[in-house]
Records
---
Amino acid sequence: MKHRLVLSLCVLSYVVHADHAAAQWATNGNLLSGALGTQTDPAAAPDGAGGAFVVWADNRSGDWDIFAHRVNAWGAVYWPTPQNGTPVRTGVNNHTDPQVINDGNGNAIIVWVNQNNNGATDIYANLFDGSGNFLWGPTGVALCQAQHDQHSPAVISDGSGGAIVAWTDARSNDNAQVDVYVRRIASGGGPQWTSDGVAIGTSTNAQTSPKLISDGLGGAIIVWEDNRTDGTTRDIYAQRVNSAGTVQWAANGVALVTATGDQGDIAITADGAGGAIAAWKDNRVADPHIYAQRINPSGVNQWNVDGVAVCAAVGGQIDPQVVPVGNGEVIVTWIDLRISTDANVYAQRLNSGGGALWTPNGNPVCSATGAQALSRPVADGAGGVVVTWLDGRDGNFDIYAQRVGAGGAVQWTTNGVALCTAPNNQGNPVIVGDGFGGAIVAWSDPRNGLADIYANRVSAGGSIPTAIGRTPANTLMASHSSPNPFSAQTTIEITLPGEADVNVEIFDVAGRRVRAMNVGLVGAGTTPLAFDGRDERGHPLPSGVYFCRIHAGSESLTRKMVIQR
């Protein structure tokens, strides 16, 4: 059986599904919504099959509504209403601030702020399957309808097909004091825990802007900005809630930083051991700098009191973002003002002890002339990141991207690859991984007047896959996958003597193809390709033996992989 399978893989030709062949990515991106009015505030999540769920706020009807699309790895949209998006929540009053995650089963959980008939705002959610059908009712499920306003939601998967949502809540004093609450919704759409949410931070003065990550056990760690000390300057606090909705640490949270000055603009990620790593903008001295702290599952800070300096270069740094890259290590990106005439994109890698692994004060990701803003990274699956940002090198803000390897070196064209240089200022970029070392980026785009929603994909090799085809490859080499067996992700390094179009197919042990991917044009040298262990629909593949067939030009290689969940 094994010999027959290997032989069959050797003679299989590369076949592209008809819907894949009909689609391709455009130089300046693919239009997801060009409806009348303004489309803005996009959010995105991977669909698990190389594509993305993209949601946005949309005022085509006069009021603000929520719309969404699913775009696949080949650039095609394929939800029930392919023209201008699928309605998530429409009707009277405003629906804003959409957020989206993959539920772990190839479906999208979308959360938004819902204005009620009294003018106050509540928190709602709905589940959309991979085909765009809503599963929690036509108007969604209310997570919080307490008095006054609830806003600024953040959402993560609960690991069981549902979600945990945190938000800023004014129920106690009609926006004069705001607090932080959290609630879980089960996979079937039933709200869990205390009605209208569990109180996380309700100290004096304001608690705002919550972010959260999974604790790996069905609960969450939440961080927020907190000005309990003097009512003016902000500190950073954290709290853990377990899968039953019970807070685990001290009432009103544990301080990550209470240094002098103002701390805010928090980013958070899991540390891989049940705790969290947070990064923030810190004004303890005249210029803002980037600091970070790790907190363990028991609520004990692991690094220096008030955090470690990620970057303290003269001139200032803002807008930190943080992603995990394995072994308790993270990569932090930010916008850097050390060059007085420009704002550039920098990055630093921290080990599990908070030590910097690259150049002190970080490595430049983009130092082009003009201003760069809003850097947004995603892990590439091989120890590095793909970063996108707004780039003003040509006078208007465009969309660029760069891949940074595990060692801190940029992998693509110096100062990045252009994903969109259309007229006017593009804005609000969001990024998700494509499961093979590249990424899909979505943004708001006013090239035609009022803002629309566009997206583009950049491959692991730094190209936009504008067409599916073959280019010659003299000799293709590929490593064995690592780790192997794997649970969530594995990486194969391919080596090419010259540029070639790369395609990947995954087969199960019976010889059935379960996933196909046009990786895109890959340059000469060694390029890591990550595989996230999911099928064409975004569902996790079951444990077992699989074969990864890599095509580069006219050459192919097969590597055996074992998924062990």
---
Amino acid sequence: MQKQKTRKENRKTESIGNETVRKDNFMNNVIIIIISQIFIKIIGIAYRIYLTNRDGFGDEGNAIYTGGYQIYSLLLLLSTVGIPSAISKLVSEKLAVKDYHGAHRTFKVSFVLVSMIGLAGSIILFVLADYISNKMLLMPEAALTIKFLAPSIFFVSMSATIRGYFLGMQTTKPTANSQTLEQVLKTILTVVFVEITAHITSTNTALMAASANLATTASVILSFTYIYRLYSVKKKGIWKEINKQEKCTLESKKSIIKKVLLVAIPISLTSIVVSINKCIDTVTIMQGLTHFLTEEEAKIQYGILNGKVDTLIGLPLAFNGAFALALIPMLSSAKVQKNMDEINSKISLSILISTLIALPASVGMCVFAQPILDLVFPNANQGANILSAISFMVVFTTIGQTLNGALQGLGKLKLPVISLIIGIVVKTILNLVLIPIEGIGIYGATTSSIICYVITFLIEIVALIKMTKIKMPISKFVVKPIVASGIMIAISYIVFKLACMIMSSNLSLILAIIVAVLVYCIAVVMLKILNKEEWLMMPKGEKIYNKLYKKTETM
């Protein structure tokens, strides 16, 4: 009996040991991505706070600044077309068979291709800047901001190619470091350029917005310089491996380009459609609001939604993005091995974590909308009702992000695009109908956005359940997370109200957030939302589980 027990424990230890080795490598990359993306998001919010609260900038400046940025984002996506993912996939395939020359050749051909596409994108954006600002955005003052932003497409495209090459070597640090450096420089240069412009022009809003986009271009160029120099240093070692390799048949440039595009286009379509969605918002919101508001009033409403509110509701996506990104290679590997148990367990855990991230964030933004805006944008704190109205979109966008990763990992690349297009068509119709109605206005945009992502979510979750036969009990995935979020918001709201009697609203909100996090974590543990197997999939999960539940189990 004792021997049988020992053998069982040995098998368990061996199984955990193998999993730990595999999981540690995976989690190292995930942690790097999470840390860099959260840091980037926080820094991004910091400079948006500065811009929004800067005298002479505010919501009107945000409208000019972000209006042109959506068109830029679309052209940028069309220029890079999922290149990092495509190159990383093709390069890793070459390296797996020790074809170092083929891997480097794939990178070089891709670099030239993407550079040419990026240059074309920059030229198009620069030449059409006046037309876009006057005819599409109805903001003539945005022309200069678009022209200053145009060169970024060329440099971002080249940076994306090098990042893809490094990702193909299974190293995420160059990508994380270059993106972090870019955001830090963007924040610093934005403050410097805007302050100089404000001083010279006596706070001319249009020129301040243009200088903010000039700072973006400067930071992109410096980030490219960093990652290209890093590649130049690494290239010596790369060529040592290439020179050791025996002569092999070189793949034609035409074949490489074809492979890159065939992989890149399906991967990038979802992002392109999202950017198109933003562009549709830019046009329909401004044109709809001007039915009953002046252009200046419409710009302020649009600036609130697309500047402050979008920035805040995008924060949970930064926490969740690494999990969604990690699902693709994990599920692809499990699918090849036909390991349905691993597929279902990873998808189930990822959706559950996304739910546990999204629900409290959504409820918190809804209830504390005004205090949040007071804290983050003290000099331009309008828009609490808009933030409350759209906050529930966070649930569907965050979980939808994970569903996209799951479907792409399982090889269903078209489904996320199709579902999103259906949602956007419905949203566009609702925008055109609802926004021009004076009693609805900007809330027509919030309503249509929520409906868009609800439709997308429903299509994807139904398809995923049919494909995998995954089981997601309502109690575990819906009821318990809602109960935990309800307990959290009730206690934190009471704390906030009591704290406001003895301290400022800002300090009270910070205290309430700290209490909310602690209460929510305790509620998740007490309700046993995560089972033992799910805890063991986490970093240090066994130790955490034993500390949390060992005493309970022995009683």
---
Amino acid sequence: MKETFAFLFPPPRTLRPGSGGLDPRGVAFPLELLKKFEPLFARFGVSGRGSGPQAVFQAAGGLGEEEYAIECAPGRVVVSAAPGRAQFYALSALLQVLAFHLPAGAMPAFALRDAPAVPFRGAALFRAEAAAGEAELRGAFLQLALLRFNRLALPAGAAGERAAAALAPLARRLGVELWRLDDHPDALGLVAADAPLPAPTRLPEGVAGAGGGDPWLEAFLGRCREAREAQASLWAWSDRFLERLERVRRIPRAALVLNRGDASARGDRFAAAWRIFRGHQVRQVLCPALCASGRFLPDGRSAMAGVESACAAAAAARLSGVLVLEGGDGPGCLPGGAALARFQAGCRLWSGRASAPAAFSRWALGRDEPDLFRVCSFLAQVEGRLPRGHDGYLFEDPLLAPFSRQDDPRRVVAHYRKAVQYLGKREIDAGDLAGFLAFAAGLFAFIAAKVEFSARLESLLAEDGRELQSRAAALEEALAGLRGLHAAPPAAPGPGARRDFDRLQDDLAGLRRAAATADGRARLRERRATAAVLEAEEAAPY
């Protein structure tokens, strides 16, 4: 029976078969639910106005705040759930079942009961998503809500403010709490259930570490008092408390500490920090990063190892929960690149386990597309097969090439060309993810060509410069095409990405111009010969 319902996301806790079946086309829903959850019915293509059994929604005792139960039998559809999030979760599960069986015109009877593994399940909207158009923004929000994330963190700044205004009505209907998040260590934010979403603030510059007492802590406690008077709670990052552990015992009970992780998948990252706050009964949320700084797509294994570490620590210590972050500064992840990691994280937070592969394309595309899971799984492993991430090879100086010269350039080129070949053989209708897959193929092809160009510079510089100019010009053209793919909706390049692309474009143009004269080529040879090969940790790629 569970295999029959493998398309469900997140996977439910308990599911058992019933006797007989019913026609999914005939199930009717109350008018108030059709109006309230119209985006959900549209998402699954279910009219909800059939002439068969009327779905009965009731609040049943003995169920938790987000717990629900569904019973589908011949002539009977009963949903037990409290109004709000539980009702939305129950309806989304029921609509998934109806949508899956609509083409066949028949579905088996079943009984389902479900509840979350982690109470606080947060996700940060990526900066590219927050800057997208309103339709794309609502689509991204609904996808996260369908994964049962009950807190959505929006980035600080104008994009986050616009996103908050656009999403607030839908968030209220679906029971999702909106946050505004600033990842600066001195950032503080209010959490108020029914108040207008406030922008996060930062403690004054220079307060931390000042002599004479602890002015940073006094400023923090002052903000806590302001939050209490406003009948709200305050969140703060753990960084400043971990700098001076005596501050931890002064944290008020109403405050919520966000304990950040990284994308390195070190299991001890959270274990070393959460015990400090737990010992003083401080409420805390663990914040794993899906993507390392500067990368367009994450290392999927590291991303999920970080999420798993956070979930295990939160469960062991009965912490408030987990907030999954985009991760780092720089260009930042593209939403399409992190789609599978997000999906797996959402399923893990709700169900305590991963979903079946068949469910991924139904979440991402709204239909079956078996190859999509294979492609995204492949992309999730690309980052782990070389000593560096793609950001190192992409944005390194093409003349000095510290990363690819230190590694084996032939291996790097072969690796990325094989990835391009793999993507070229996949013939799938990827829907909204098609733009990302085209960007990934262009990214890998460009890196392979650029690393090969850098590896051949010694011989190219010894010639008359015409081939060097031609190859540099070809790379400039390819880079312009890659930038165009990166800027296509729903992604929007942030300042970090624009700076990195600009710098690389300038480097390639400088090589092309210098190659035009014998003196220019001599200067390039001298610079390349005298430059030491830089270690990875000493040379940031942006």
